[in-house]
Hints:
Elements: E1 8-10, E2 13-15, E3 19-21, H1 37-47, E4 54-61, E5 73-74, H2 81-94, E6 97-103, H3 111-114, E7 119-120, E8 134-135, H4 138-157, E9 162-167, H5 172-177, H6 192-195, H7 197-210, E10 215-222, H8 231-244, E11 248-253, H9 269-276, E12 283-286, H10 292-301, E13 306-308, H11 311-315, H12 319-325
Parallel strand pairs: 3-4, 3-13, 4-5, 4-6, 6-9, 7-8, 9-10, 10-11, 11-12, 12-13
Antiparallel strand pairs: 1-2
Helix pairs in contact: 1-2, 4-7, 8-9
The structure holds flavin mononucleotide (FMN).
Amino acid sequence: MEYLGSPLKIGRMTVNNRIVLPPMATAGSSDDGKVTEQLIRYYLEKADGGATGLIITEHAFVSQEGKASDRQLSIADDSAIEGLKALTEAVHVEGSKIAAQINHAGGNTRRELTGLDPMGPSMQTDFPKIQPEREMTGEDIDKVVCDFAESAKRAVRAGFDAVEIHSAHGYLLNQFYSPLSNKRSDAYGGPIENRVRLHLRVIQAVREAVGEIPVFLRLGSIDTVPGGSTIKDAVDASVLFEKAGIDLLDISGGLTGFIRTDVQSAYFADVTREIKKHVRIPILLTGGISSGREAEALLREGAADLIGVGRAMLRDSKWSEKALAEKE
Ligand SMILES: Cc1cc2nc3c(=O)[nH]c(=O)nc-3n(C[C@H](O)[C@H](O)[C@H](O)COP(=O)(O)O)c2cc1C
């Protein structure tokens, strides 16, 4: 596997190959937000003796109000660091790189879970699944920027090789990006430049917090419903993110999630092909890819620079090793 097996430099980090375990919430493997032995064992298994070049850990919440689900991993205070450090050290022994995905749920959570009113860019949305109970003020926005930066610092202290800002699948940053959930009339709403203003602030604050460590952004590129975000939005946003210093763009779906029913496999290849015409940073493509041959063909064609394999790796922890050994 000429392409799949080749190393890649991402910012100052080099991964051994192009295979990525994308972030996947393990739902229940953490204990009150803390890393458990069971969670470490799970990620070690997925590292597959280093055959998985890069692991991106499941979304961790940056603040109590940004928590998305019960038993979600936390990176919201310093007590999380010790467990996360044990995790990164274990994965490093295998030879894989490990990045931390950090997230704020915004209006996509419940008061019973956080103890606070779910907040978002606007109360009224055109997307029934996301209905925040409070519109965010300037102060709320400042706090979110700060919470992302503080969490990124913790990720560095815990030994992660990179940090990924989550802006996909209907969570807070995705809510700002999508015209279906962002109805603001201030500097954070309206044209795409405004809808990614919060992202650009978060990117700058995270960059200052982590120094030279690579910073990724997972973009919920398109909403596959009328009136939602488009490939053009994704391209325009990607150009701005690259300019702001993002080292890798991880492309997935928006409010409508990470699976598409209108496309059979490599769900977001149409988006990554277009983005790649406009930016130079590496692009990670995930969604519906299940064989090494398919991954190799996408890389060869230039549709992406790295390939994420989620559910196929959940089914088979030896996926990476087998894919690298597949005959083209
Ligand atoms: C059980 C499960 C949990 C997931 N949790 C997350 C998550 O925490 N963060 C995220 O960005 N994506 C998450 N995803 C989406 C995956 O990263 C990936 O984009 C999706 O599974 C599509 O890729 P696949 O077809 O290779 O599985 C999750 C997916 C699954 C199946």
